[in-house]
Design goal:
alpha/beta, Rossmann fold, 2 domains, six-stranded parallel beta sheet, binds magnesium ion, hydrolase activity, HAD_sf, hydrolase
Length: 238
């Protein structure tokens, strides 16, 4: 089983909104922040800029949208303030710990597959109690390929020691996670946490929360339900 991290296990959107609120006093500009993030994060994933440069240029571009042209020193000061506020707000979704316990108790080998810099993402995982939970941690910044490239899923399957057709990947992005996993020969599940009961024209199964994952596995793949014991690593997850 492969799991994405951001907005699948960890509520990255909520922590990012907290960071934005620390930056400007409210999060009403969230749509602008999100659009600016999408543009700049794509440049980081493409290898055009390093992560710290991306953070700096994103914050500069965000304020420029509102006509405020900042010096490098002021961008750095505001970005540091935002980053600290965001990191204080890192939290797992409430359905994560029970799901991980069930997966462990059911005998799944688990891999995290995530697009981010290695040190940053490992710090984030440690801060929410995810260190030691996974059998393999595949971070794009460490392996040199990012989702949706099939190569990152192939690395995950190899580290798990499980053939790709027996591996299921769950993530919050239909294109980058679920569909990309299917293209790499895995099974893909789209975790759509939006809560919007919109018609879903997808070729992959959709769940609205991780509490639905065990039932999905039992019904679709015949996995027997386990009575999960608590593990020390998961008990510390919050
Ligand atoms: Mg994600």
């Amino acid at each position: 089983m492969c799991l994405d991290i951001d907005d699948t296990l960890l509520d990255n959107a909520a922590s990012s909104r907290s960071g934005l609120a620390a930056l400007v006093g409210h999060d009403a500009a969230w749509p602008v922040w999100r659009r600016t993030t999408d543009e700049h994060y794509a440049r980081y994933l493409a290898g055009d800029v390093d992560f710290d440069t991306m953070l700096h240029e994103r914050t500069r571009a965000f304020f420029a949208e509102f006509g405020e042209l900042l010096t490098d020193a002021e961008v750095a000061r505001r970005e540091h303030h935002r980053m600290c506020a965001m990191q204080r707000a890192w939290r797992l979704f409430h359905d994560v710990a029970p799901c991980l316990e069930w997966l462990h108790a059911s005998g799944y080998r688990l891999a995290a597959v995530t697009n981010a810099p290695g040190g940053y993402q490992r710090k984030k995982m440690a801060s929410v109690g995810l260190s030691g939970v996974f059998d393999a941690v595949i971070i794009s910044g460490e392996v040199g390929v990012a989702k949706p490239d099939p190569a990152i899923f192939e690395i995950a399957c190899a580290e798990l020691g499980v053939p790709s057709h027996q591996v299921l990947h769950v993530g919050d992005r239909l294109d980058v996670d679920a569909t990309a996993a299917v293209r790499a020969g895995l099974r893909g599940v789209w975790l759509d946490r939006s809560g919007v009961p919109a018609p879903r024209q997808t070729d992959v199964p959709v769940i609205a929360g991780l509490d639905e994952l065990p039932e999905h596995l039992v019904c679709d793949y015949g996995v027997e339900h386990a009575d999960p014991p608590r593990s020390a690593a998961l008990a510390s997850a919050r």
